[in-house]
Write a structure and sequence with these properties.
heterodimer, A: 239 residues, mainly alpha, 82% helix, 0% strand, disordered C terminus, B: 329 residues, alpha/beta, Sulfite Oxidase, Chain A, domain 2, eight-stranded mixed beta sheet, six-stranded mixed beta sheet, 8 helices, globular, oxidoreductase activity, acting on a sulfur group of donors, quinone or similar compound as acceptor (chain B)
Chain lengths: 239, 329
């Protein structure tokens, strides 16, 4: 894979990952969001769904590249995609805090327009107890916040210099938490839908396949250890 | 619970037979205050507002026959939810679990002919025809607040007459303490019926709740017959309770001595009580009920505090005096 095509693919991936967000902005600007019966609900589900989709895409890279050495270059895009999962998770969290929690955004923005930006904080103080209440009482919010905190840690430690500073082993250990984040994300989904609703089953199935692929690969590698390992060893010696 | 006796029940009809519309009307002509005539299905079609459906382009608002209604004192002054939102954002799981599913799928529901079976503890079990039921009393237009347990709310003009009127007509026995409603169950008309539910959908009320003047037997909204997704052709509306208590597309009304099991309460008793009165003090495990998102014409959510009994305390609080509404939620 040439450097130029890697850059081109990265640009394409940025555009692809930003497309859902651009679509949301488009719906806002053309008035479709205001026509939607429950815009807040729509945005919450939209950003939540895309967080999961992108998280699953990140997790799909390792099993995919193992299929053939020719596509092993995919790993170069993993961090980029993973950061977009954090981007949508943050939008999702912000939607909850400022639009879903009961925060009076209309009054807060009205205050800003009238030259009283303090209104943002005033409204925050009003709703803060309700958010704490949600956090203490509602397990789907707890597990969702856990997933966001993990994604935040992974995003914060994603620059190469931090990776070097942490040491590869530690960095990898921390970044394995992505499995916890993905599982927490799916549990968050199951816990928030009403009893009897099975909407999250597709995301769950994809996650299960991606995790199973890893288990199967590890088991396969263990049984086929000898032959390929020897061959690689020979090849490297002869080099 | 004392119920007024219905006068002149007329010739007895076998319970297996549908009460003809004419008979149903004849016997109650004297009790009518108004003649509603062919209000239900007559009148000219009104051109429905065509709002671009950018998110669900497959939906179209169809022009429907207008209902002839009379104004009612039970009307709140709150700004009404736009028709398009009230008819495109529905919980009607028989047509799918997503809010937009019912509007897309409920066209398969056949609402004529339609009968409602009256059974259980009544003097005379019978099956009533929908057009007869609709003409039995003048249809009032009542603007009610509508609060969903999912913490959103709407303000909707419903068209119907008090449920108590039909109950009096059904003439329940004094031993009837509860009334149970059953929604249609037909897999042919409801191909999206999700598994994992104990269909058909049933809901219930204590008799005194059902006799409360606010309990509305509903045939329409916004001055026209109920769209299928809103529970056509007949449903109940109980504005002081969470929306799911208001059974849709009713095919059976049954009078019982004991509290009937209800679908949501059976599925998750810790989440959905039998009473389900709107109560800002009692949280649902997933949604704080202290405030609600009013669905109106704006993009930004109008968050407002939730009122006890959805603001209808003056009319209904006495029904629950002496009850612990945290236990009996």
């Amino acid at each position: 894979m040439s450097k130029r095509s890697i850059i081109a693919l990265k640009v394409l991936l940025h555009l692809l990952c930003l497309a859902p967000f651009a679509y949301l902005l488009h719906l806002y600007r053309n008035g479709a969001l205001a026509l939607n019966p429950d815009p807040v609900n729509y945005i919450t589900h939209f950003t939540g769904n895309w967080t999961l989709y992108i998280l699953l895409a990140t997790l799909a890279i390792t099993p995919l590249r193992r299929l053939s050495p020719r596509i092993s270059f995919l790993v170069r895009f993993r961090r980029l995609i993973g950061l977009y999962a954090f981007f949508y998770a943050t939008l999702h969290l912000a939607t909850y805090v400022f639009l879903f929690s009961g925060y009076d955004i209309v009054t807060a923005l009205g205050g800003v327009r009238a030259g009283h930006p303090g209104e943002i904080v005033t409204q925050w103080k009003v709703i803060w107890p309700a958010i704490v209440d949600d956090l203490l009482k509602r397990r789907f919010i707890q597990v969702g916040l856990l997933a966001w905190v993990i994604l935040f840690l992974l995003a914060a430690t994603s620059p190469a210099f931090i990776m070097r500073a942490m040491g590869g082993k530690n960095w990898q250990r921390l970044h394995r938490l992505i499995y916890v984040a993905a599982i927490a994300g799916v549990i968050h989904f199951w816990w928030l839908v009403k009893t009897g609703v099975r909407t999250p089953w597709k995301d769950t199935a994809v996650l299960a396949v991606l995790l199973l692929a890893r288990i199967v690969y590890t088991a396969w590698k263990r049984t086929h250890k000898r032959t390929p390992a020897v061959r690689i060893g020979v090849a490297s010696v002869s080099k | 619970m004392l119920l007024r006796k219905s006068n002149n029940l007329g010739p007895s009809i076998p319970s297996s037979e549908i009460t003809p519309k004419e008979v149903f009307e004849q016997h109650h002509q004297t009790r009518r205050r108004f003649l509603t005539g062919a209000a239900a299905l007559g009148a000219g079609a009104i051109a429905a507002a065509h709002v671009p459906e950018l998110l669900h382009p497959s939906q179209e608002v169809h022009a429907a026959a207008q209902l002839q209604t009379v104004p009612s004192q039970y009307t709140v002054p709150d700004a009404q939810t736009p028709f398009n939102k009230a008819t495109n954002y529905n919980n009607f799981y028989e047509f799918g679990t997503d809010k937009s599913d019912p509007a897309r799928h409920a066209h398969t529901l056949v609402t004529r002919p339609w009968t409602v079976k009256i059974d259980g503890l009544v003097k005379k079990p019978q099956t009533l025809d929908i057009d007869g039921i609709m003409k039995y009393r003048p249809i009032e237009s009542r603007v009610y607040r509508h609060r969903c347990v999912e913490a959103w709310s709407m303000v909707i003009p419903w068209d119907g007459y008090p449920l108590s009127e039909l109950i009096k007509f059904c003439d329940p026995l004094p031993s009837a303490k509860y009334v149970e409603f059953t929604t249609l169950l037909d897999r042919k008309q409801m191909p999206d019926l999700p598994g994992g539910f104990d269909w058909p959908y049933t809901e219930g009320l204590r008799m005194d709740e059902a006799m409360n003047p606010l309990a509305l037997l509903t045939f329409g909204c916004y001055g026209q017959p109920l769209p299928n997704q809103n529970g056509a052709p007949i449903r109940v509306i109980l504005p002081w309770k969470y929306g799911f208590k208001s059974c849709k597309s009713i095919v059976k009304i049954s009078f019982k001595a004991k509290q009937p099991p209800t679908l949501w309460n059976e599925m998750a008793p810790n989440e959905y009580g039998f009473y389900s009165n709107v109560n800002p003090q009692v949280d649902h495990p997933r949604w704080s009920q202290a405030h609600e998102r009013r669905i109106d014409s704006s993009f930004l959510p109008h968050t407002i505090p939730t009122l006890m009994f959805n603001g209808y305390g003056d009319q209904v609080a006495s029904l629950y005096s002496g009850m612990d509404l945290k236990k009996n939620f």
